[in-house]
């Protein structure tokens, strides 16, 4: 269960933190998925697409570690 503490009565900051945690844990995706019934055939297609996406991401990370492709530089926050 996601738990967020409100510090110094700053509700806006707590709400942002809650949304970020929900997104990271996949709660928002699950809520959207459960709004409407998903046919078993659609579920198989979606899961296959997710597996392909995960495999590509893993291959990209491995290639970056081995130095075959350059890693993306994250912009600095100011």
TrEMBL record:
InterPro entries: Ribosomal_bS21, Ribosomal_bS21_sf
Gene Ontology BP terms: translation
Region of interest (Disordered), residue spans: 56-78
Domain of life, per lineage: Bacteria
UniProt KW keywords: Ribonucleoprotein, Ribosomal protein
GO MF annotation: an example: structural constituent of ribosome
Coiled coil: none
GO cellular component, one term: ribosome
Record family assignment: Belongs to the bacterial ribosomal protein bS21 family.
HAMAP family assigned: Ribosomal_bS21
Protein name in UniProt: Small ribosomal subunit protein bS21
Name of the gene encoding the protein in the UniProt record: rpsU
């Amino acid at each position: 269960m996601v738990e967020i503490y409100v510090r110094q009565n700053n509700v806006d900051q707590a709400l942002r933190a809650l949304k970020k945690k929900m997104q990271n844990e996949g709660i928002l995706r699950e809520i959207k998925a459960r709004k409407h019934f998903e046919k078993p055939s659609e579920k198989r297609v979606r899961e296959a697409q997710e597996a392909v996406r995960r495999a590509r991401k893993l291959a990209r990370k491995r290639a970056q570690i081995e130095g075959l492709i350059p890693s993306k530089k994250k912009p600095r926050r100011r």
